Amino acid sequence: MYLIGQLAKRCEVSSDTLRFYEKNGLLVPSGRSDSGYRLYSDDDLSRIRFILRAKAVGLSLDEIRELLDIRLEASQHSCAEVKAITQAKLDDVDRKMAELKRIRVALKKINDACCGHADDDASHCSILEALGDEESTDTEHLASGCCRGHSHL
To answer: What is d(CA 122, CA 64) in angstroms, rounded to the nearest whole number?
Structure first.
């Protein structure tokens, strides 16, 4: 049996992390010592390592909790149920990546259109113009760049 500090050290996490997992229903101490300290078993160690690996692949606490519940009664569940959880996460990651790509293209477009001269004031900055355009919610309308309409000295 491990005390919380010992388990934390073995798993390379803080005791607060273990308390957080306990508070969120992912971990239940196997018992308590006579003096009331939490005690954890090798099964608890295995559970924490499972949680940490699941977190490392981006699963949420709810998804991890669901997988732990399935793992506890694995013979009463199918691989399809488990795969559905990871497939849903994968679909979510793909959606987020597509959105990040869209954001990157738009951000790059407005960034590239700006001259970025340190000695130029920002009154004609195309980035501010693009972000301030109340008529459009995209960056397709961008001008060819900054500093148009005034001359450099």
So the answer is: 48
Q: How many of the other CB atoms lie within 10 Å of CB of 87?
A: 11
Residue 10 to residues 6, 38, 49, 55, 140: CA-CA distances in angstroms?
6, 15, 10, 17, 54
Element (H, E) at 105: helix 79-113
Distance (Å, rounded) from C-alpha 150 to C-alpha 8?
63
**Spatial CA neighbour of 52 closest among 39, 62, 61:** 61
Distance of alpha carbon 140 from alpha carbon 130, whole angstroms? 9
Q: Are 61 and 27 in contact (CB under 8 A)?
A: no
Picking from 36, 31, 38, 32, the residue whose alpha carbon sits closest to that of residue 15 is 38
Identify the helix (H) or strand (E) that includes residue 92: helix 79-113
150 neighbors 124 (Cβ within 8 angstroms): yes
What torsion, rounded to 10 degrees, do the Cα atoms 102, 104, 106, 111 define?
180
**What's the chain's length in residues?**
153
Tell me the whole-structure pTM to 2 decimals.
0.74
Write out the two tokens for 7. 């388990």
Per-residue pLDDT tens digits for 83-127: 999 999 999 999 999 999 999 999 999 999 888 888 888 888 889
